[in-house]
From TrEMBL:
UniProt family annotation: Belongs to the putative lipase ROG1 family.
Region (Disordered): 1234-1267
Gene3D superfamilies per the UniProt record, alphabetical: alpha/beta hydrolase (3.40.50.1820), Ankyrin repeat-containing domain (1.25.40.20), P-loop containing nucleotide triphosphate hydrolases (3.40.50.300)
Keywords of the record: ANK repeat, Repeat
Protein name per the record: DUF676 domain-containing protein
Residue stretches making up the Nephrocystin 3-like N-terminal domain: 306-486
Swiss-Prot/TrEMBL ANK repeat ranges: 886-919, 920-953, 1057-1089
Pfam families membership: Ank_2, DUF676, NPHP3_N
Amino acid sequence: MAGDSEPEKHGLFKLYPQGYHPSSCDVDIVALHGLSGDAFKTWTDKDDHLWLRDSLPGHIPNARIMTFGYDSALKNSTSRMTVFDFAQDLLARLDVERQDPSERERPIIFLCHSLGGIVAKQALIMAHMQDEFYGNIVKSTTGMAFFGTPHRGSKTASTGRILSRVVNVASLSRTIRSDLLKTLEISSQSLDLITRLSSQILSGISIISFYEQKPLSSTGSLIVEQFSAILGFPNERAIPINSDHRGISRCSPRHPNRYLPVWSSLKEMVEKSLLESRREYDEFMDSLFCVDYKTAQLRPRQPHRGTCDWIFHNLTFRGWLDSQQSAALLLSAPPGFGKTVLTRHVMEQVLAGEQMYSDGTCINLGVSFFCSYNDQVSTSEQTVLRSLLHQLLQLHPRAQHVICNGLLERKLLGLTYNFTTDKLWVAIRDTLSMDEMANTFICIDAIEELNVEDSRRIIAGFNDIVEGLNKSSKRTRRILIFFSSRPSAQYKVNHPAMHILSVNRQHTEADIRSYLGDSITEFCRTNAAFAAAIANRGSTSVVEKMTKRADGMFLWATVAWENFCHGLFWNEDVLEQRLLDLESTPPGINPLYNKLLDRIDPNHRKELWSFFAMLAVAKRPLSEAELSELLPVMMSHRDDLTNPCEVRPFPKLVDIVEEHCRDFITVHDDGTILFCHLSFKEYLLQTWATDRPEILEKAKMSITKACVAYIIYWDSLAIKGQSDNPRCLQLLDYTLSHYLSHLASLPPDHPLWVTYAEAANSGYFSVNDSSPLHSLLEENFGRLVPEKLMSIEKCHSVVRAVVSRGYDLNCRDKDTRGSILNLCCYSVGEGFRLTVPLLLELGADPNLYPLGKDANLKAALYGNQQDTANALLGHPKFDPNQTDRNGQSALHHLIGFGSDEAIFALLENRAVEVNIQDRVGSTPLHLAVDRQRSEVVRRLLLTQHIRLDLIDKHGRTPLALATWWGLKQIALIIIDRSEAFPTPETSHISPLLSAAKHGDEEIVRVLLPKTRYKHIGRDLDESGKGFLHHATMNNWYDMIETCLMLSDVNTDQIDHSGGTALHYGAKLGCTESCRVLLEYGASTRLQDRNGRNAAQMAAEAGFKDTLMLIVRMGNVDANQRDHQGRNLVHWAATLDCLDVMQLVCQQADVEVARRDNSGKLPIAYAWSCQCPKVGRYLSLRMKYLGSLSVPWKDPYNWDRVFEIAAAQYIKGQIAAQEMREASELAEKRRQLEAQNQPLDERGWHLFQPKPEPSRQLKTCPRENNTM
């Protein structure tokens, strides 16, 4: 690689850091210039500021920044390298620079200007194909930023027009690189191939597309239009830059606000690439994405040059923008006043960093949703919120962790995202509350296009967020909400704090004049006859007349002018006549549309009416290919259509539009054909519904017929493996998305419903694991939008109609969802609930359910669909004894989720097998015990042939299960049945032992006689303890005595830790139980795993009476040592009980001077435990009994121990007295407050504590201990 100081322009050059070490950087940033560009000059402004080197490191200091140069010169170049060669060169050089192990997995981000984006995409394709050599590069690529990259061409611009722009930009000579130009042509096969092959790779990384907004001065037009600069992927952010094609890649510090979106978005992209949970982020974003909101953002027209800027000087708008708090503004305008165009202009100005607060700071974060240009069927409150949240998380990827946790819900099959509106509102509020989201701008256009309730909730929800943010003391910046809508008086009434900007003629007249003036000037330049005709009259009078007639409606002025200038011949008389025609037109857009339609050639009206009607009834804008398939169907006289290939498509519809429909229809940059303004669609649907209803009905019928026929056609191709047929793909996307919404407009008895249902056993429904009624009910009842496809009654009529024609309700789809009845039982909603009785009436089998899933009854009960459950239970063919995948019957399901009444009714009216065991061995009785359903347990016990000896996989009978969980009342209910007491096997759980473990004395006293005191010592719990252990621990000494008297239980039975019942009795101070055990021969010398006997356990626990009982009654060896070498004297020394130590020392040969494993004597433990009585006793005994070889000299000051004890006693007495006085004072205050008597200065002293000269407290008498 060439160094920075070398003059070469081609290669990979490192710009930052200068002193590079592989461990010093976290990400690689690689910049690629465009056509005729330069590795350095492309990124350098006129002040020689190379922002990749001079500015970018300040924002991303942990990046290695490189720039790649290649020979893309158009003139004076002898190179014949192609895009493929450039890409291969880039891969080779980049691989050389990433040889260190820490570099191989380092994230890569590409910054691409113009052609550089094509080269980078080709490089990723080749790296993917050459995985052995360059696989790490494509795997490490986490982001791409495109600066004016022409990904696609425009249907409205010819190839020659695009080429001329490129030629002008490059200042071509005769020696041009025509091969590179050909790559950038709209019809370029190589460009299409690169775009298609790279789409899969690009869909998994972060993408930012910057697009230019200023035309290049030398051409007067945009070099790369917006539609071509934006890919339209869900993972893409589109950001406008208020610069031309050259300036878009030169981030100058002289324009900090203009290029702020570049800095901030690149920084966010780097942060996202370094996220440890990047894969989880991508998966969540894919789940969150629901509609193509990016395309809708680009469909509104861009404003005419110089218009729409009035809003930035409007007092209401500036007051909202400069508000010191978060605020919401509603832009209200009548139809045709250009509110959507104005909204887009505001949004792009914000995203481009051109609009600032009054303090000079910039709004750098913006999200939007354009309701008018999104799919009408799917647009709802939920889709708006999901789309906005998707954009917000693109701006702040680190918020994903917080948002995901709030949206995750645990279902039967695991964790899933809950995208209900309530959850989404919480997620948006939490995101906007983060400090990183300060200065965020949210824009929702044409909110009136939504359902009334949806629009009301969205406006109210964001106003609540604004109010909540303003009340928060942590916010230092504000959130701005921008709505646009048609006028409504309810907005101000419901939200008085919201700013409302009502657009009127005063706001738009200046823009109308500007538009008309520029249009007339441009028309004069291209039409000499018109220029001569208007020369004497002057353009001002024409502008004023048309402006006056427009009455502030920009759309009227636009449509009127476009129609006005269509004449072929011009003179002053023609000009005057056309002005008179405009003046005779009534005000408003509808009369103008009437007049324009009347001017259409009568010979063409029938075809064009069909064209208009097809666009009007379509659920979204249609492409030329889609319309070419649909229009022949409408114009055909055939009633049946089974194969779309039988109808030949219409070619070159765009040419027809250009010639005959320019006043009404336009071809968008993305190739879709749509109305020039949505008001014309509203005009058609409203006016033609009364004037020409047959045209609209025929259009609806034709598009529905085409969709159904297209499905059948695709069915046949799918079966033959030819579903990738180009003809098949023309209408596939539209058909699969909207065929049901078109069918819903037909009457229930229409033959197309039957045709639709007959597709059940082949093609689309089989290949895609579905069936017709599944799709119908899911789409109609499962939709989250308030407006359903059809009413419940109509849907039921359709079901009846298709079933009457032979549709099998019990057919299963291949998606394991089972029959249509299964779908209704699994789904929640009124429509599904009301459909179940109908399906059962029509012959649906209530016992069918899909493999691997729950039975119908369980699904209904789990979803709290009680009516559905009752309908199933009441069906005569319902089999209550059928088991599901878990081996559970209907009785299991009802006990788990149903009501007592339903269970009793099933037992009363059906022959139910009550002893069915599920996969884990539980019978219905087991389940009733587990769910603590006592009434159900009683009822089951009354059932004939009920078995109480069946065990589950853990070895528990129903009674054992009740005692296992400590369910006392249920256990007592079962105990009333004599057969509940089979002798448990060794591996089974004993009810008696479980009850004893839980301390249920009442149950134990009832169970003991019923066991006849047999096998009491055989049953052990998981720790090896038997009944005698637990009885001793509960101090049931009378039961212990009875058991030892009547059974053969071993008193010295040990558990897994080596402890006997006597050990635990001594440890817990159960003196009476220990007495009984000792009377029946319990050993006092057995040691547990720590080597301690029962007496040592009692001494360790500090139970004096128990210890003395064991020493007196048992055969205790005081010199027996535990694993730490301590005998009983050591343990007794820890108790300051002189009588205990004297009793222990009465045994013969007691070793009072025995040292333990740590070398400590018993007297040392007496000193450590502050036991002065025992300590003095041991000291005297060691001194006078001569137990030591060396005369004993006591090193301990026992008098000091007594003084400390006395001081502690006095301190405790003082503290207790202070607490008593404080309590008395508080009580007096409460009494006074209860009597409502104020505390004045004269009365308050009565409740002050009186000073005491001295406290006379009794001291703890010092005990004189003598031998």
